[in-house]
Amino acid sequence: MTKRKIAIFDIDGTIFRKNLAFELIEELVWMKIFDLSVRRKLTHFYNRWLEHKGVYDDYRKALVELYAQNIKGCRKEDILKASREVVPFYKDRTYNFADKLIAKFKKEKFCIIAISGSPSEIVEEYNRYFHFDSVFGSVYEVNSQGIYTGRTIFEPPLYKGQVAKQYIAENNISLAGSYGIGDTESDIKFLEIVENPIAFNPNSNLKKVAEKKGWKIVVEKKDVIYEIK
Q1: 121 phi and psi, to 5 degrees?
Q2: What does the alpha-carbon distance between residue 32 and residue 36 come to, in Å, rounded to a whole number?
Q3: For 142-153, what is each residue's pLDDT tens digit?
Q4: What DSSP line would sit under 80-148, residue for residue?
């Protein structure tokens, strides 16, 4: 039996034009599950990045920390409800480059997986519309009453390479002709193992690595897609 080829995607900033965790926090604040102060803190870091007073990684770390700090005591059913509200509204806000690749890979019967730092609840809801073979998001512990304990069980950004390797080994997948698409340094570990790594709209850290290793660098600006040689 011929092994399937694999395509590995990041989601936030690679498929989705924004950040699933950011939109989830916004919805949780609106639902009064998270306090309004959470949004103010998050917006502070986001604006610092937009105004070149901070770096993207500071914003990303603040996003993860704020979610982890405020999820304690929340009900899982509320997070699932918020995810169901957010995803249908934002599901079509994708990059054209990612859309074209996904369509190509599906036509060619690739195994497609996505590894994201956003919470697994919203990542899995997102996949209801994309129908990838598997998706992986950050996992937070829930007790027997369906309440989050505040403990983080799994953070994919720290282990994206290991997640990809384990999935490939367990599912008899071939790396021949494989693709990986990511936008930040957290994606480097899975980009390193595929035959066709693509740094898409990369931040400066990923761009430096991509240039050093000779990886393809693709940028999408408005309705134009181009490769940086």
Answers
A1: -60, -45
A2: 8
A3: 999 999 999 999
A4: HHHHHHHHHHHTT-B-HHHHHHHHHHHHTT-EEEEEEEEEHHHHHHHHHHH--SEEEEEEEEE-TTSBE
End-to-end C-alpha distance for the chain, whole angstroms: 38
Task: Please answer whether residues 168 and 177 qualify as being in contact, where contact means their C-beta atoms are separated by less than 8 angstroms.
Answer: no
Q: State pLDDT tens for residues 31-49.
A: 999 999 999 999 998 899 8
Instruction: Kindly provide the b/e burial profile for residues 101-120, where b requires at least 16 CB atoms within 10 angstroms of the residue's own CB.
Output: bbeebeeeebbbbbbbbbbb
- Per-residue pLDDT at 2: 75
The full length of the chain comes to 229
Q: Would you state the structure tokens that stand for residue 72, as one six-digit string?
A: 């304690």
Burial of 85 (0-12, 13-18, 19+ CB in 10 A): middle
- For 130, residues 6+ apart whose C-beta sits below 8 A from its C-beta are 15, 102, 114
Distance CA 57, CA 54 (A): 8
The position carrying tokens 């730092």 is 117
**Which tens digit of pLDDT belongs to each residue from 110-133?**
999 999 999 999 999 999 999 999
How far apart are the C-alpha atoms of 136 and 120, rounded to whole Å? 6
d(CA 77, CA 204): 38
Q: What is the DSSP letter of 154?
A: E
